Amino acid sequence: MGRDKAEVVFDGTPLLTRTLTALRAGLGPTAELLVSGPTRLPPGAGGGEGGRAGADRAGGAGPLAGLGDALGDLAPDTIAVTVGVDHPLLVEGVLRLLADELAAAPPEVTTLALAPGALEGRRPQLLVAAHRAGPTARIVDELVGRGERRLHALLDHAQVATVPARRWRALDPLGRTLFDVDDEVERRELEGWWQRARATAPDPARTSAREVPSVAIVRIRSGQATDERDHVIAEEPLEIRAAGPGQQPVTLVTTMRTPGHEPELAVGWLLAEGIIEAGDLRAIHPGDAALLARPDDLVTVEVARAVDPDAVAHRHAVATASCGVCGRASIEELTGRLTPLAHDGAPLAWSVLAPLPDELRLAQRRFDATGGVHAAGLADRRGRLVTVREDVGRHNALDAVVGAHALGGVWPEQGLRDLVLVLSGRIGFELVAKAAAARVPIVVAVGAASDLAVRTAERLGVTLVGFVRAGDGVVYTHPGRIRMQPPG
């Protein structure tokens, strides 16, 4: 990058400081921090005690030699967690998991790395790993003595185990621990990703046991019945109201949803229906706790302009969790107000799109608990998930993931046209219409598309891709936005 990466500033903080802070938080105040390479540990970096610089015997001989440098300065029985300084978004819990898992692994395992998600390919990322210092250092010294420079040479000569992706992604749903920066373009792009991901992250204060309650069940295996408890996904009504300046709130819809993201769902629904624009938002209020046992079952959105109740009077007051347009007088009302999306920008490689349903699945915590919930995600043009929401209703998940961007203040003037929508199931008409309303040009799903979804996508300029599994898929409309891999 034209200078020592350790000094590069990411989100206002030098990379070295970010890395040391994450290590200190993940491994505790008694862990010794060691910097290997030309960079020296700044005084007090990372907090706590025990920081020191390692020798720089590698002298630019490559990452494998740099690893040997670090491990060679440690006691042989030390478990060392190593990270590259160019990983600015390390999750502390993942670093602790690496150390704990290697401590519990059989002694012949010398290195433990993170099994990558679909985004990273098949090989583990050895720049974020845990090592038994003595055994790994001996293997590294032998390899370096033969002239080897590649870190991944360890895979052929050491006992390397991995933490399964689903395990560590439970602590890091978006997989950001493995994101790195190799040049200024990547640094700027990742900073943009981080701004949006942080602004649209779920509010921990809104999560509760209401999302995945426990129920008594009788489980049958091989004809044998046992009494157990299991988790199910919650489904409860949400009344959405809106009010302009000086206006009494107008009830617009009651929908069945999973509790936990009511403001985002309400705003996303209003945006998709064309009732408001992102700049119209003024405030959001739950129901009155003095009048309602569950105040979150009602949301009132204050907007900058008057809300016309006649604009929604022709709709049924209740939409089910499976279909938000049941009872709508005419689908033409949805598509007639939307301008078709233009084909601007460079085509996106299929290799970026194909892993997205698998990435979404790795981020689905509610599905892991219940097996009965839909998901929607928005990903950037490098295939990194930015925002994910889960809900009993597929259209609710999409509304919430879109609404999160409006509420987070990361709604570009041209809408979300630089993002890709990822869906966990089939693609219905309304999902395509909502994507077009948010100006998302590409929709990718693990399931099939309906005929009406295909016709709507064709009409609104949306690239629609279904059956995306194991690297394969079906492009229904506007394939020009996708760059296919050349044959053979």
Structural account:
This protein has 488 residues and is of the alpha/beta class. The protein has 15 helices and 23 strands. The protein has helices at residues 15-27, 63-72, 92-104, 133-145, 154-157, 165-169, 184-199, 262-272, 332-336, 350-353, 356-362, 365-370, 394-407, 429-437, 451-460; strands at residues 9-10, 13-14, 33-35, 51-53, 79-82, 111-114, 125-132, 160-163, 214-221, 224-231, 236-243, 250-257, 281-286, 298-303, 318-319, 348-349, 374-379, 385-391, 420-423, 442-445, 463-469, 472-477, 482-483. It has a 6-stranded mixed sheet with strand order 18-17-19-20-21-22, with helices on both faces. Helix 8 crosses helix 13 (394-407). The radius of gyration is 25 Å and the shape is globular. The two termini are 34 Å apart. Mean pLDDT is 87; it is low at 46-51, 316-322 and 326-330.
The level-1 CATH class of the largest domain? Alpha Beta
CATH topology of the largest domain: Spore Coat Polysaccharide Biosynthesis Protein SpsA, Chain A
Physical arrangement of strands within the biggest beta sheet: 18-17-19-20-21-22
Oligomer: single chain
Distance between the termini: 34 Å
Instruction: Sketch the major β-sheet.
Output: 6 strands, mixed
**Percent of residues in helical segments?**
25-40%
* Global Rg: 25 Å
User: What's the number of helices?
Assistant: 15
Summarize this, please?
The protein has 488 residues and is α/β, with parallel strands linked by helices. The chain has 15 helices and 23 strands.
Spell out the key features of this protein.
single chain; globular; 488 residues; Cytidine Deaminase, domain 2; six-stranded mixed sheet; Spore Coat Polysaccharide Biosynthesis Protein SpsA, Chain A; 23 strands; five-stranded mixed sheet
